[in-house]
Amino acid sequence: MKKSILILLTLLIMHGSIAQRIAVMGALDEEIAILKEEMGKYKTQERGGIDFYLGKLKGKKIVLLKAGVGKVNSSYSTAVLMENYHPEALIFTGVAGGLAPDALPGDLVIGEKLVQYDYGQVDSLGFHVSPFRHPFDAQGEELFISGDSALISTSLEVAKAQTFLPISGREPRVFSGVIATGDLFVSSDEKAKWLYEEFGALATEMEGAAIGHICRTLGVPFVIIRSCSDNANNHARVNFNQFVGPASVNSAKIVLGILESMQ
Ligand code: ADE
Protein backbone atom coordinates (compact mmCIF):
# COMPACT_ATOMS: atom_id res chain seq x y z
CA MET A 1 0.00 0.00 0.00
CA LYS A 2 1.28 3.49 -0.88
CA LYS A 3 2.48 5.53 2.09
CA SER A 4 -0.01 8.36 1.34
CA ILE A 5 -2.97 5.94 1.35
CA LEU A 6 -1.76 4.44 4.61
CA ILE A 7 -1.54 7.90 6.22
CA LEU A 8 -5.04 8.75 4.96
CA LEU A 9 -6.48 5.51 6.35
CA THR A 10 -4.81 6.12 9.72
CA LEU A 11 -6.25 9.64 9.83
CA LEU A 12 -9.73 8.39 8.92
CA ILE A 13 -9.63 5.75 11.65
CA MET A 14 -8.37 8.28 14.20
CA HIS A 15 -11.19 10.64 13.33
CA GLY A 16 -13.83 7.93 13.49
CA SER A 17 -14.72 8.00 9.78
CA ILE A 18 -13.93 4.30 9.48
CA ALA A 19 -15.49 1.71 11.78
CA GLN A 20 -13.13 1.12 14.66
CA ARG A 21 -12.43 -2.24 16.16
CA ILE A 22 -13.53 -3.51 19.54
CA ALA A 23 -10.49 -4.45 21.62
CA VAL A 24 -10.72 -7.80 23.38
CA MET A 25 -8.07 -8.51 25.92
CA GLY A 26 -6.98 -11.24 28.31
CA ALA A 27 -3.89 -11.54 30.48
CA LEU A 28 -3.02 -15.17 29.77
CA ASP A 29 -2.93 -17.45 26.72
CA GLU A 30 -5.71 -19.56 28.27
CA GLU A 31 -7.95 -16.50 28.54
CA ILE A 32 -7.81 -15.62 24.84
CA ALA A 33 -7.34 -19.13 23.35
CA ILE A 34 -11.02 -19.86 22.66
CA LEU A 35 -11.54 -16.43 21.07
CA LYS A 36 -8.54 -16.88 18.79
CA GLU A 37 -9.91 -20.25 17.78
CA GLU A 38 -13.38 -18.77 17.22
CA MET A 39 -11.92 -16.04 14.97
CA GLY A 40 -10.70 -18.70 12.55
CA LYS A 41 -8.91 -16.45 10.09
CA TYR A 42 -6.96 -13.54 11.56
CA LYS A 43 -3.98 -11.37 10.78
CA THR A 44 -1.18 -11.00 13.36
CA GLN A 45 0.49 -7.60 13.72
CA GLU A 46 3.35 -7.02 16.12
CA ARG A 47 3.46 -3.60 17.75
CA GLY A 48 5.79 -2.72 20.62
CA GLY A 49 6.61 -6.39 21.09
CA ILE A 50 2.93 -7.36 21.54
CA ASP A 51 1.07 -9.57 19.06
CA PHE A 52 -2.28 -8.13 18.01
CA TYR A 53 -4.75 -10.47 16.28
CA LEU A 54 -7.00 -8.67 13.82
CA GLY A 55 -10.13 -10.40 12.64
CA LYS A 56 -13.85 -10.78 13.22
CA LEU A 57 -15.91 -12.34 15.98
CA LYS A 58 -19.67 -12.65 15.56
CA GLY A 59 -19.36 -10.36 12.51
CA LYS A 60 -17.72 -7.57 14.51
CA LYS A 61 -14.22 -6.29 13.72
CA ILE A 62 -11.97 -6.91 16.69
CA VAL A 63 -8.39 -6.61 17.81
CA LEU A 64 -7.48 -9.36 20.26
CA LEU A 65 -4.40 -9.39 22.47
CA LYS A 66 -2.74 -10.99 25.43
CA ALA A 67 -1.94 -8.17 27.85
CA GLY A 68 0.37 -10.09 30.17
CA VAL A 69 -0.03 -10.51 33.92
CA GLY A 70 -0.08 -7.60 36.36
CA LYS A 71 -0.62 -3.85 36.27
CA VAL A 72 2.63 -2.93 34.52
CA ASN A 73 2.28 -5.45 31.70
CA SER A 74 -1.39 -4.73 31.16
CA SER A 75 -0.88 -0.94 31.24
CA TYR A 76 1.89 -1.21 28.68
CA SER A 77 -0.21 -3.43 26.39
CA THR A 78 -3.21 -1.11 26.75
CA ALA A 79 -1.11 1.94 25.88
CA VAL A 80 0.31 0.23 22.77
CA LEU A 81 -3.21 -0.90 21.84
CA MET A 82 -4.66 2.60 22.18
CA GLU A 83 -1.86 4.27 20.23
CA ASN A 84 -2.06 1.85 17.33
CA TYR A 85 -5.71 0.81 17.04
CA HIS A 86 -7.86 3.52 18.68
CA PRO A 87 -10.53 0.94 19.66
CA GLU A 88 -14.12 2.10 20.10
CA ALA A 89 -14.47 -0.01 23.28
CA LEU A 90 -12.49 -2.51 25.30
CA ILE A 91 -13.67 -5.81 26.75
CA PHE A 92 -11.40 -7.63 29.16
CA THR A 93 -11.97 -11.34 29.73
CA GLY A 94 -10.28 -13.62 32.21
CA VAL A 95 -10.15 -15.35 35.55
CA ALA A 96 -10.07 -14.05 39.11
CA GLY A 97 -10.10 -15.13 42.70
CA GLY A 98 -13.62 -14.97 44.19
CA LEU A 99 -13.95 -13.04 47.46
CA ALA A 100 -17.59 -13.04 48.55
CA PRO A 101 -18.07 -15.66 51.30
CA ASP A 102 -20.62 -17.56 49.20
CA ALA A 103 -18.78 -17.20 45.87
CA LEU A 104 -17.36 -20.42 44.53
CA PRO A 105 -14.91 -21.25 41.79
CA GLY A 106 -16.83 -20.91 38.55
CA ASP A 107 -18.93 -17.90 39.51
CA LEU A 108 -18.64 -14.89 37.21
CA VAL A 109 -18.21 -11.24 38.20
CA ILE A 110 -18.88 -8.30 35.90
CA GLY A 111 -16.87 -5.30 37.17
CA GLU A 112 -19.14 -2.38 37.99
CA LYS A 113 -16.24 -0.68 39.76
CA LEU A 114 -12.55 -1.38 39.96
CA VAL A 115 -10.10 -0.43 42.68
CA GLN A 116 -6.30 -0.64 42.89
CA TYR A 117 -6.09 -2.06 46.41
CA ASP A 118 -2.27 -1.85 46.62
CA TYR A 119 -1.86 1.82 45.66
CA GLY A 120 -1.35 3.95 48.75
CA GLN A 121 0.93 4.78 51.60
CA VAL A 122 2.39 2.95 54.52
CA ASP A 123 3.10 4.45 57.93
CA SER A 124 3.46 3.34 61.53
CA LEU A 125 -0.25 2.42 61.57
CA GLY A 126 0.07 0.25 58.50
CA PHE A 127 -1.05 0.46 54.87
CA HIS A 128 -3.68 2.96 53.69
CA VAL A 129 -5.07 2.83 50.19
CA SER A 130 -5.08 6.13 48.24
CA PRO A 131 -7.19 7.40 45.36
CA PHE A 132 -5.40 7.26 42.03
CA ARG A 133 -4.45 10.45 40.19
CA HIS A 134 -4.98 10.44 36.43
CA PRO A 135 -1.90 11.32 34.38
CA PHE A 136 -3.37 14.50 32.86
CA ASP A 137 -5.03 15.33 36.16
CA ALA A 138 -8.11 16.76 34.46
CA GLN A 139 -10.31 14.14 36.08
CA GLY A 140 -8.85 14.44 39.57
CA GLU A 141 -8.41 11.50 41.88
CA GLU A 142 -10.52 8.39 42.11
CA LEU A 143 -10.43 5.35 44.34
CA PHE A 144 -13.07 3.43 42.40
CA ILE A 145 -13.23 3.55 38.64
CA SER A 146 -16.52 2.65 36.93
CA GLY A 147 -16.93 0.38 33.95
CA ASP A 148 -19.20 1.47 31.11
CA SER A 149 -22.81 1.10 32.26
CA ALA A 150 -24.14 0.04 28.84
CA LEU A 151 -21.46 -2.65 28.45
CA ILE A 152 -22.12 -3.85 32.01
CA SER A 153 -25.88 -4.14 31.35
CA THR A 154 -25.27 -5.98 28.11
CA SER A 155 -22.83 -8.35 29.84
CA LEU A 156 -25.43 -9.16 32.49
CA GLU A 157 -28.21 -9.68 29.93
CA VAL A 158 -26.01 -11.88 27.80
CA ALA A 159 -24.88 -13.87 30.85
CA LYS A 160 -28.51 -14.56 31.84
CA ALA A 161 -29.18 -16.23 28.50
CA GLN A 162 -25.89 -18.13 28.45
CA THR A 163 -25.14 -21.78 29.16
CA PHE A 164 -21.82 -22.04 30.95
CA LEU A 165 -19.50 -24.97 31.46
CA PRO A 166 -20.17 -26.43 34.91
CA ILE A 167 -17.24 -25.97 37.27
CA SER A 168 -16.70 -28.26 40.23
CA GLY A 169 -19.98 -29.95 39.32
CA ARG A 170 -22.17 -26.85 39.51
CA GLU A 171 -23.65 -24.22 37.25
CA PRO A 172 -21.80 -20.88 37.63
CA ARG A 173 -23.75 -17.89 38.98
CA VAL A 174 -23.28 -14.34 37.71
CA PHE A 175 -22.67 -11.30 39.93
CA SER A 176 -21.79 -7.69 39.27
CA GLY A 177 -19.90 -5.48 41.67
CA VAL A 178 -16.47 -4.32 42.77
CA ILE A 179 -13.31 -5.98 41.49
CA ALA A 180 -10.07 -5.39 43.42
CA THR A 181 -6.87 -5.20 41.37
CA GLY A 182 -3.32 -5.51 42.70
CA ASP A 183 0.05 -6.94 41.81
CA LEU A 184 -0.48 -10.05 43.91
CA PHE A 185 -1.79 -13.51 43.23
CA VAL A 186 -3.88 -13.77 46.39
CA SER A 187 -3.72 -17.13 48.06
CA SER A 188 -4.55 -16.13 51.61
CA ASP A 189 -7.77 -16.44 53.64
CA GLU A 190 -6.79 -13.31 55.55
CA LYS A 191 -6.09 -11.12 52.50
CA ALA A 192 -9.24 -12.35 50.74
CA LYS A 193 -11.32 -11.38 53.80
CA TRP A 194 -9.65 -7.94 53.93
CA LEU A 195 -10.39 -7.26 50.25
CA TYR A 196 -14.02 -8.22 50.73
CA GLU A 197 -14.49 -6.23 53.94
CA GLU A 198 -12.43 -3.15 53.01
CA PHE A 199 -13.69 -2.64 49.45
CA GLY A 200 -16.79 -4.84 49.19
CA ALA A 201 -14.91 -6.55 46.35
CA LEU A 202 -16.40 -9.73 44.90
CA ALA A 203 -13.28 -10.77 43.03
CA THR A 204 -9.59 -9.99 42.90
CA GLU A 205 -7.26 -10.00 39.92
CA MET A 206 -4.14 -8.29 38.65
CA GLU A 207 -5.06 -6.05 35.69
CA GLY A 208 -8.59 -4.65 35.64
CA ALA A 209 -8.22 -1.32 37.45
CA ALA A 210 -4.99 -0.46 35.60
CA ILE A 211 -6.64 -1.02 32.22
CA GLY A 212 -9.75 0.79 33.42
CA HIS A 213 -7.78 3.88 34.41
CA ILE A 214 -6.22 4.09 30.96
CA CYS A 215 -9.60 3.65 29.27
CA ARG A 216 -11.09 6.30 31.56
CA THR A 217 -8.24 8.72 30.83
CA LEU A 218 -8.69 8.27 27.08
CA GLY A 219 -12.51 8.12 27.14
CA VAL A 220 -12.76 4.55 25.85
CA PRO A 221 -15.77 2.60 27.23
CA PHE A 222 -14.69 -0.63 28.93
CA VAL A 223 -15.94 -3.63 30.82
CA ILE A 224 -13.98 -6.16 32.86
CA ILE A 225 -15.43 -9.67 32.89
CA ARG A 226 -14.03 -12.21 35.31
CA SER A 227 -14.73 -15.84 36.00
CA CYS A 228 -13.52 -17.21 39.34
CA SER A 229 -10.92 -19.92 38.92
CA ASP A 230 -10.41 -20.00 42.70
CA ASN A 231 -11.41 -18.25 45.92
CA ALA A 232 -8.18 -16.33 46.59
CA ASN A 233 -7.88 -18.43 49.76
CA ASN A 234 -5.18 -20.77 50.99
CA HIS A 235 -6.13 -23.30 48.26
CA ALA A 236 -6.15 -20.75 45.45
CA ARG A 237 -3.13 -22.04 43.53
CA VAL A 238 -4.47 -25.61 43.33
CA ASN A 239 -7.96 -24.42 42.29
CA PHE A 240 -6.49 -21.97 39.77
CA ASN A 241 -4.55 -24.76 38.01
CA GLN A 242 -7.65 -26.95 38.04
CA PHE A 243 -10.17 -24.39 36.76
CA VAL A 244 -8.30 -21.76 34.72
CA GLY A 245 -9.30 -23.56 31.47
CA PRO A 246 -13.09 -23.86 31.89
CA ALA A 247 -13.34 -20.56 33.80
CA SER A 248 -11.62 -18.79 30.86
CA VAL A 249 -14.07 -20.39 28.43
CA ASN A 250 -17.06 -19.19 30.48
CA SER A 251 -15.78 -15.62 30.57
CA ALA A 252 -15.12 -15.70 26.81
CA LYS A 253 -18.71 -16.86 26.25
CA ILE A 254 -19.92 -13.53 27.63
CA VAL A 255 -17.57 -11.66 25.28
CA LEU A 256 -19.02 -13.55 22.30
CA GLY A 257 -22.53 -12.73 23.50
CA ILE A 258 -21.72 -9.01 23.82
CA LEU A 259 -20.23 -8.89 20.32
CA GLU A 260 -23.25 -10.73 18.92
CA SER A 261 -25.58 -8.23 20.57
CA MET A 262 -23.74 -5.33 18.92
CA GLN A 263 -25.01 -6.24 15.41
N1 ADE B 1 -6.50 -14.53 39.08
C1 ADE B 1 -7.07 -15.72 39.33
N2 ADE B 1 -7.03 -16.03 40.63
C2 ADE B 1 -6.40 -15.01 41.24
C3 ADE B 1 -6.04 -14.75 42.58
N3 ADE B 1 -6.32 -15.61 43.54
N4 ADE B 1 -5.38 -13.60 42.85
C4 ADE B 1 -5.09 -12.73 41.86
N5 ADE B 1 -5.40 -12.93 40.57
C5 ADE B 1 -6.06 -14.05 40.26
UniProtKB/TrEMBL annotation:
InterPro entries: MTA_SAH_Nsdase, Nucleoside_phosphorylase_d, Nucleoside_phosphorylase_sf. Pathway: Amino-acid biosynthesis; L-methionine biosynthesis via salvage pathway; S-methyl-5-thio-alpha-D-ribose 1-phosphate from S-methyl-5'-thioadenosine (hydrolase route): step 1/2. CDD domains: MTAN (cd09008). The keyword Signal applies. It comes from the Bacteria. SUPFAM superfamilies: Purine and uridine phosphorylases (SSF53167). The keyword Metal-binding does not apply. Pfam families: PNP_UDP_1. This is adenosylhomocysteine nucleosidase.
